């Protein structure tokens, strides 16, 4: 069996593994070199690089080598291949939903030595997932979905922030001008659908080992979008896949082609700074209850890395979690502050009072629906549910039949 | 000619056979073996026999990918041949204007696929693209790359646009090889333009047409860059062609077994199509 694995991995791995074997752990000045693969693009990359620059200024024992590897999913694909090849960096950051899989594959280094960090409960591993287990990730750029409204249009129409699904449908219909503007837009993606499922009163996994995909609540969530797109003609399913659709949503909002959009808190500063109208954030509406998943990523340390690099990674993570640094990451991006110290700092400095949009996601943390710690969670999300959501909404397929197909696919081996 | 020793032909073929075995046969065999395992590169592989193939058939995914790819191929081959031949006939004239026109048509072929795909993404953007604006001006709102029903034909049209220049050049070369005396004889017999094309040009161009059809077919089966840049296989998987589906399974889902099963089926389909084409070629030669 091992021979076959080597045969299959050999060709893919050889080129990457060879230089990795020769890679020194220290630089010419004797500093530990910490390779860090990240996915921070655009303006947020500058914020990350500033934190790294401050880390370098604060000490002279560790030098961080950040390498941009594409969006979350591209970075993850490269990371998984690099792990198989023994060429992965010591530090990276991954979306929350893939952590159970990476843990089951025995690729993550336990970080229990960092348990003393004052992490925000709902954003830490213990709050973002159900159940207790060794700490394997430190929150980095964490977010929730929120609603962004075009303040000018809402005021002109005399509309209040939609508090329920029914309010949202009414507002979307009222704000839609065929051929000019959609009332509502959200990427047809797992994260936003999971939010709808939580609001409809269910979880995507239930308590058993197989995914329920929310049962009847999952169907209702999907039908909600179908109604808005096909019957009300008040929602635009943005073109493109993955983050192309997210970008299209942002551009439609900024250009006034969408009056209200759902997207991540990550875009808060970007949208505020680029909109020609007041951007007003609001919590997602409720159906039978309020509910949102958390998103964004966790720092992870790769188990195979040399001990010196693991220690360097722990040192860097402690630095990132210092109140000033964690506060800056949140303040300059829109991501949630990851430590209690950072929240207090932002509160004491009057930041929250001056930026009420930033308070919205803070308050939503009370309604977080934690993820199940399931090895198959990420495969079900990416391989099965995401493509079927797009098919169901764009082609107006029977929501119950589509989700039944998804459950059947989830039961098959990968 | 007889070899002095039966070993000699094998000695001559040896180096080529070794390279062929190392780079073609061995990877194919490894892929076939991998297709019987469920493996993600990180956790130990599990033998699943034909389950990967079964899953592809049971979900109907394989049939859909195959139908899409063949549909795309038909559009690309027919489009590239018709346009290539039409342009060759139109532009086979002396003079600078026609030379510039021929150069302009061929220029798309030498541009990289990524640049071509990006160009068309911008042109067809449903909100900001100039083509979409033109359609909106007359009250139409076509989805082009954003509607499941129009995405595949649009992708085929982009591919045809890119490779038509090549088809045209090959047809132009074919036209040069038709003896002028045949046209003169046909004209003396009273044949008009259409009949001259039907009875002189087209029969002479048949081998050229077969070559253009084969190369266009290969291009259409290998389509990847254009899918990756323009649609990433969407919307609603409407443009998930064979090579992109394999890429998706291996590089995005790390489903080595499923990707290998797809690659094996791809190999079988290509072998069948190539076999059919070869047979058609030979049948024509024998006539």
Overall pLDDT of chain A, averaged?
91
- Give a quick account of the main beta sheet of chain A: strands, pairing sense, barrel closure: 5 strands, mixed
Task: Give the strand line-up of the largest sheet of chain B.
Answer: 1-2
Class from helix and strand fractions of chain A: alpha/beta
Q: Order of strands across the biggest sheet of chain A?
A: 2-1-3-10-4
Instruction: Write down the overall geometry of chain B.
Output: flat
Chart the SSEs and their pairings.
The complex is a heterodimer of chains A (414) and B (287).
Chain A: H1 2-22, E1 32-38, H2 42-58, E2 62-68, H3 72-85, E3 91-95, H4 99-104, H5 125-128, E4 138-143, E5 145-150, H6 151-156, H7 165-175, E6 182-185, H8 190-199, H9 215-231, E7 235-236, H10 243-254, E8 258-264, H11 268-274, E9 279-282, E10 295-301, H12 307-320, H13 323-333, H14 340-348, H15 351-354, H16 356-364, H17 377-394, H18 399-411
Parallel strand pairs in A: 1-2, 1-3, 6-7, 6-8
Antiparallel strand pairs in A: 3-10, 4-10, 5-8, 5-9
Helix pairs in contact in A: 1-3, 2-13, 8-9, 9-17, 13-14, 17-18
Chain B: H1 7-34, E1 37-38, E2 46-47, H2 51-58, H3 61-91, H4 96-110, H5 113-124, H6 130-137, H7 148-176, H8 180-188, H9 193-221, H10 225-230, H11 242-252, H12 256-286
Antiparallel strand pairs in B: 1-2
Describe this entry's structure for a reader.
The complex is a heterodimer of chains A (414) and B (287). With 414 residues, chain A is α/β, with parallel strands linked by helices. Chain A has 18 helices and ten strands. In chain A, helix 1 (2-22) packs across helix 3, helix 8 crosses helix 9 and helix 9 (215-231) packs parallel to helix 17 (377-394). Chain B has 287 residues and is mostly helical. In chain B, strand 1 and strand 2 (46-47) form a beta hairpin. In chain B, helix 11 runs antiparallel to helix 12. The relative contact order of chain B is 0.13. Chain A binds chain B through residues 1, 4-5, 7-9, 11, 73, 77, 80-81, 83-84, 102, 104-105, 107, 179, 239-242, 244, 251-252, 255, 257, 379, 382-383, 387, 390-391, 394-395, 405, 409, 412-414, and chain B through 27, 30, 33-34, 37-46, 48, 51, 55, 59, 126-127, 136, 141, 145-146, 148, 231-237, 251-258.
